[in-house]
């Protein structure tokens, strides 16, 4: 064989190899993230409490999209609004599936609710409960946290189950409070080991790794009570013909048809319980979180509260409660509302999504089945002096991200009850600014008690319990509220 032939053969083979490598599809890398350990992946790097804060810190090292693998489960953290909108909104058709979180499913069962058009029809409920809230805060201000919870429960309870909640000791308030506190104590579902090892749900409760199982069982019992008791109440009223029209009764009518509620299948009943119970629980807990955060912010920043009060008096006056029509005329209060939502986002990681097919984003491969978490906490921290409560930032920079555009989630999975919830919170904040003074509580020696900005970590973030001093702003507050309540009850025949 000649040297020329050998050289030609080697050259041809090299050319073919190079051509093959250049035309073969290149295997894309997954997005950057912390280095995984063998077999267990990043499981030891996912904190059990406040994971949103650690995920936000990872932005400095890995950018705004962070890829993890917990055992075999891929997770993508979105730490910027651009990434969240690109994937969860612009590509919502393939990012709208929910992952089946085992612990979350053991505790609850998710989704559905109200529309923008329906909110105005619910105005009487807001106006009535707002009067009761101010009355309660004026008469027993030391119980302000219970009054906030009663207000939140009452507004959504009437819509969902058609019943009134007037007492802090009401059964439905206690059911929601117990279920909410136990859910918070159980930790963030996405941080639980069982979410990534579904087989663990089959282990016995006495096993060494079964704490989650025991806790989930307790939480499930509390949540089941919160779902079942009001549902059975509405069902009984439907049968007796005494039901107040509400979301649950309408769902029963839609599923039961002409045959009535007795013809509902077990599957229909479970679905209705899940829809109604989830709407009630989610709206109640997040409303409590945001209003409590407002109280804390006003205690710590009296200058903000006074500025909002001055604006309120100039626009609304001192002889009536503000209404939703006043909102556009209260720009500083709007900035305060935005800053409350930004400072402590109620649901810091939102609800998780799941990618339904393989995808490519920014040149990175995202595998099918990846759990997608929009880190709302990180997104809202992306501003100057992010830890400082400063409503003026929205005046100084009109283009600054509006927290309300992200706190309710993204894309097709955005919270369906956002219009109702936002109105409940705004009206309560406006009424409090109009009628009450909030200041620091005093200790036994007369010294100011300055609370800290600390949160109870969990799926919904609440401020740690704190004390404050609440007094009516004027002598006529009680009379103003009584007159407003009488007008509401008369106008709507409630």
Tell me the helix content: 40-55%
Task: Count up the helices.
Answer: 19
Sheet/helix structural class: alpha+beta
Q: β content, as a range? A: 5-15%
N-end to C-end Cα span: 105 Å
The parts where pLDDT drops under 50 for at least 5 residues are 101-114
Give the strand tally.
11
Oligomer: single chain
List SSEs in N-to-C order: HHHEEHHHHHHHHHHHHEEEEHHHEEEEEH
Roughly what is the average pLDDT, rounded to an integer? 84
Strand order of the largest sheet: 1-2-6-3
Shape: globular
Largest sheet: 4 strands, mixed
**If you compute it from the alpha carbons, what radius of gyration comes out, rounded to the nearest whole angstrom?**
27 Å
Protein name: Cytochrome P450
InterPro entries: Cyt_P450, Cyt_P450_CS, Cyt_P450_E_grp-I, Cyt_P450_sf, Cytochrome_P450_fung
Binding site for heme: 415
Organism: Collybiopsis confluens
Describe this structure in words.
- Helix 8 (123-139) packs antiparallel against helix 9 (144-161), helix 8 (123-139) runs antiparallel to helix 19 (477-492) and helix 11 packs across helix 13.
- 43% of the residues are buried.
- By secondary structure, the chain is of the alpha+beta class.
- It is built from 19 helices and 11 strands.
- The strands form 4 sheets. The chain has a 4-stranded mixed beta sheet with strand order 1-2-6-3.
């Amino acid at each position: 064989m000649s040297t020329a032939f050998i050289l030609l053969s080697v050259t041809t083979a090299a050319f073919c190899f190079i051509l093959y490598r250049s035309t073969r599809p290149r295997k894309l890398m997954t997005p950057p993230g912390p280095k995984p350990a063998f077999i267990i992946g990043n499981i030891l790097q996912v904190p059990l409490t406040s994971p949103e804060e650690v995920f936000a810190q990872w932005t400095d090292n890995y950018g705004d999209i962070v890829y993890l693998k917990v055992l075999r489960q891929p997770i993508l953290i979105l730490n910027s609004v651009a990434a969240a909108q690109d994937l969860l909104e612009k590509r919502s058709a393939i990012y709208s599936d929910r992952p089946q979180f085992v612990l979350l499913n053991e505790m609850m069962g998710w989704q559905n609710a109200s529309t923008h058009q329906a909110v105005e029809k619910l105005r009487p409920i807001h106006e009535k409960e707002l009067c009761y809230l101010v009355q309660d805060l004026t008469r027993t201000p030391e119980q302000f946290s219970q009054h906030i919870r009663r207000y939140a429960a009452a507004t959504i309870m009437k819509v969902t189950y058609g019943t009134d909640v007037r007492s802090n000791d009401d059964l439905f308030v206690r059911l929601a409070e117990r279920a909410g506190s136990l859910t918070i104590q159980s930790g963030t579902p996405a941080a639980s080991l069982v979410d990534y090892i579904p087989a663990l749900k089959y282990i016995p409760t006495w096993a060494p790794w079964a704490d989650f199982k025991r806790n989930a069982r307790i939480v499930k019992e509390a949540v089941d009570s919160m779902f079942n008791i009001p549902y059975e109440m509405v069902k009984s009223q439907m049968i007796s013909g005494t039901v107040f029209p509400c979301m649950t009764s309408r769902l029963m009518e839609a599923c039961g048809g002409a045959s009535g509620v007795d013809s509902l299948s077990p599957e229909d009943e479970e679905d209705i319980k899940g829809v109604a119970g989830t709407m009630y629980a989610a709206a109640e807990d997040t409303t409590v979180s945001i209003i409590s955060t407002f109280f804390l912010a006003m205690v710590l920043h009296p200058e903000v509260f006074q500025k909002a009060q001055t604006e309120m008096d100039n626009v609304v006056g001192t002889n009536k409660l503000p209404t939703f029509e006043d909102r556009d005329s209260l720009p500083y209060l709007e900035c305060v509302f935005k800053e409350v939502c930004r400072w402590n986002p109620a649901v810091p990681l939102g609800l998780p999504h799941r990618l339904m097919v393989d995808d490519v984003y920014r040149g990175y491969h995202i595998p099918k089945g990846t759990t997608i978490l929009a880190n709302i906490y990180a997104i809202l921290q992306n501003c100057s002096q992010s830890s400082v409560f400063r409503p003026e930032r929205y005046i100084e920079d009109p283009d600054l991200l509006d927290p309300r555009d992200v706190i309710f989630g993204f894309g097709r999975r955005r919270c369906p009850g956002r219009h109702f919830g936002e109105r409940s919170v705004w009206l309560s904040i406006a009424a409090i600014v109009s009628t009450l003074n909030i200041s620091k509580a005093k200790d036994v020696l007369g010294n100011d008690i300055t609370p800290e900005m600390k949160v109870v970590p969990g799926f919904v973030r609440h401020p740690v319990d704190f004390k404050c001093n609440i007094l009516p702003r004027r002598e006529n507050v009680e009379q103003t509220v009584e007159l407003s309540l009488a007008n509401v009850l008369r106008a709507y025949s409630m």
